[in-house]
Structure formats: structure tokens, C-alpha cells
Amino acid sequence: MKLLESSRFEAINASLCFETGDCKIVGRIESYSCKMVGSDKRLFKSMNAEAGGGPNDLQALSPPQSALISQSPKPCVTSP
Fold first, then answer.
1. Cys staple from 32: which of 1, 38, 45, 56, with CB 3.0 to 4.6 Å?
2. β-strand 23-26 against 17-20: which pairing, if any?
3. If we measure between CA atoms, which residue out of 46, 15, 42 comes closest to residue 29?
4. Which stretches of 17-55 are DSSP H helices?
5. Verdict on whether the full-model pTM lies above 0.70
6. Where are the beta strands (DSSP E) in 9-72?
7. What is the C-alpha R_g of the chain?
8. 48: nearest Cα among 58, 59, 39
9. Do 58 and 23 touch, CB atoms closer than 8 A?
10. Is 12 helix (H, G, I), strand (E, B) or coil?
11. Cα separation of 46 and 49, whole Å?
């Protein structure tokens, strides 16, 4: 993953940091890409080599698109 710089987030981050009496609150919003960068790729390959699996053995982390479509609400049709 790679940190994606955003001037919009920096403006929000400035307002998320404030002091209240004896406490200092530091809030931050960050965005990251989901594409693997060089170090992530090397780690992925070394972990796969240790586990003995190949890239085709990976499982999806999100449900398939067909499952999302089948769970969507059906339109209600009524006749007068």
C-alpha cells in the first residue's frame, strides 16, 4: 500500500487537531492505494514461498459481484 497525499485531507486534518483543557486531540484522515508497491510485492512473494502456495491459490476478500446483485432489493410492483 502507498499513502496518497491529499490537500483536501490536510485541510480536514487541521481541524481534527485541537486542545481541550489538559488533553490534546490529534485526529487524522489518510488514504492509501490498494495496489501493491515494491516492498509489498516482495513480502507477498516471500510469504507465498513459505506457505507453498501460488498466486492462483488466493481467495477473494470481497464477495463476488453476483452475490451483491442477488442481495439487492427487488422493485415492488402493485396493481390498482
1. 1
2. antiparallel
3. 15
4. 38-51
5. no
6. 17-20, 23-26, 31-33
7. 22
8. 58
9. no
10. helix
11. 5
pLDDT in tens, 24-79: 999 999 998 887 777 878 888 888 887 766 555 555 555 666 655 555 555 555 55
The neighbouring-strand residues paired with 3 are 32
CB within 8 Å of 3: residues ≥ 6 apart:
30, 31, 32
Give which of 46, 51, 49, 6 is closest to 29, Cα–Cα: 6
Q: Which three cell numbers stand for residue 46?
A: 516471500
Q: In residues, how long is the chain? A: 80
CB of 66 closer than 8 Å to CB of 33: no
Which DSSP symbol is given to 52? T
Domain ranges (residues) in the chain: 2-51
Nine-digit cell string for 32:
492509501
Cell of 39: 516492498
